[in-house]
Amino acid sequence: MGDCMVKVIAHRGCGEGPLENTLTAFQTAISWGVDCIECDIRSSRDGVAVIIHDLSLERFSNQHGIVTEYSLSELKKIKVGSRDRIPSLVEFLGLVKPHKNLDINLDVKVMGLEAQIMQLIQEYGLIHRTLISSFIQPVLTAFRRLNDEIATALLYEYDLRNPTAVAKELGCTAINPSLHFVDSSLVLTTHQQGLKINPWVINEQEEMQRFIDLGVDGIITDFPDRLLKMLNRGDA
Question: Model-level pTM?
């Protein structure tokens, strides 16, 4: 597979750090010309899908406690970094919708939001531009039950026996493994099974090149600008 085949997937927009999972990060990634933006979904206390990776709020705000203890309006008052707030899924979908060539990868961290997320994806006309990934297998099953057109990916970060078989059983279209478990035989098996493979999180240029050479479908990275440069794409 040639270099141009690899999808550049922006991990949390601009990677891990004070800007991660913010509208500023997503806008930056869009301006660089990435193929896809990956972000994390949790629930507010009032059951609204919001974009934040951690279970708790400590890492980037002066607030304590866990995300689900705060309502959406309370979460909206919390500053992230110098000028951002925790985005709702609605805000994110509104941002990406006009960019016709941009895909999204929603890493769903909790159960119970499947119907709400599915409805929003359909409302925004993004069903064919969305990949739902999750470590929680029943989440993937629930999405496929709601709409069998939705693409799903099995996320894993431990040595899973026969991940492609598990993914097929769950009706997935892809696997998103931690980079440590990816070798040429896994890439081959995945493609033979008609699935795609998008490893994470690949940040060093040598690693990026190794995965490009292995023929993976997408690379999830904290440095999408670095990967775009390597692929001679855009002005990132």
Answer: 0.96
